Amino acid sequence: MKRINVEVPAPVNYIIQELEKCGHEVYMVGGCVRDSVLGRKPHDYDICTSATPDEILKAFPDEEIIPTGLQHGTVTILINKEPFEVTTYRIDGDYSDNRRPDNVTFTKNLVEDLRRRDFTINAMAYNPKTGLIDPFNGMEDIKYKKIRCVGSAEDRFNEDALRILRAIRFEAQLGFAGLPETMFEIERQYDRLKNISIERINSEFCKIVASEQFCVELVLYPNVFSLFIPELKDLIGFQQNNPYHAYDVFDHTVHAIEKCESDDLVVRLAVFFHDFGKPYSYQDGEDGIRHFKGHGKVSAEITDSIMKRLRFDNETRNNVVELVYYHDATFEVGNKYVKRWLNKIGEKQFRWLLEVRKADIKGQKPDYEESRIEKINNIENILEEILSEKSCFSLKDLAVNGNDVKEVMKLKEGKDIGYWLNEILKRVIDGELENNKDDLVYWMTGVRDGWIKF
């Protein structure tokens, strides 16, 4: 086999050299090797060694060490304040909580350590001198884009049920396909995800959602996703009976995700959740056409409940819920309409909202797509003009402030100041007033003295 050369960062190379000086075997392992082979930039580097935790500590007397994980054979070494995990070769013991082994047995054999890992593509090791170690044919599975468990798929998923979501995540991220036995065990064992903490499920779910192939995995494994998002089942087969739609709600959602051009997690979550309220907010007309008035609000409420249950952070949850709430709002083309949106939800959220809207449109009947997407593109052009011209669309952009309003309008401290500031802003956004101080003071004076009708 042709020698595989993997780029080794300087801190990792330093750790390898220091351990080798002490007579220990040491390799980069797992995801960093896999990603390097695939030409992807590794997110982190795991290092595996024949040295025991005590021997690792002795090899780095002058480096800062984080001792957490010692009981499982892991030492974290800080190199220029960047953490690198170094783990002793080990054979895991029995799993009773589907998460961590109850006991760990160290070994001096690299292959035995690799044998306990989840998938063949993650069971490869690399050392600059020795080259690639691939005892379970991970390179072949990379070549043919397959997700294969190391040894028995039944045993690997039984050891840690989270590997079910990890398999789906690697399929989604890499564009790989699970082997039949892998997919069979996913379907057979997915119910065991109930034993996994929601935080760990959330972490894997977010990585799947953020990947290009999320739509594919959603079609392949709806039962898996429905285990922790049971509301998803109500979308499957729910007909829309609407001239704008060619699919049921589930298939529309899949197509919208497929057409979503954003890789931002907030946008992709909003596209996923945007129509969850349709099965609970439909009205069938006498002509047989089904309408979904108010489904944005219902979808937002359901999304909020699901994201709380999945322990999303408040900022992500609030942003996604707001996008879902407004995804089906009326979007008018015009300077003042875009400014109103900017004032209501801010530039970032408005940009994201337009991305959600485009994905939603592209997941509907193609007959209406061109004109509706053109409308969104026109709105985006207006948005760029407003931002480039630094037009006023928020209170901080106004040429007058609270003190100006208080002085001119002869007000005391209180809500009245905020009221008049917002009234002025509304008129500036709508083009009724110019945003310069003299004009705004003139208008306030006229309103105060009664010679400008309010």
UniProtKB/TrEMBL annotation:
Which part of the chain is the CCA-adding enzyme C-terminal domain?
301-443
**Gene3D superfamilies named among the record's database cross-references:** 1.10.246.80, Beta Polymerase, domain 2, cca-adding enzyme, domain 2
| Upper lineage | Bacteria, Bacillati, Bacillota, Clostridia, Eubacteriales
Residue ranges of domain Poly A polymerase head in the record: 26-148
Similarity section: Belongs to the tRNA nucleotidyltransferase/poly(A) polymerase family.
Known cofactor(s): Mg(2+)
**Gene Ontology process terms (BP):** tRNA processing
Q: What is this protein called?
A: tRNA nucleotidyltransferase (CCA-adding enzyme)
CDD domains in the record: HDc, NT_ClassII-CCAase
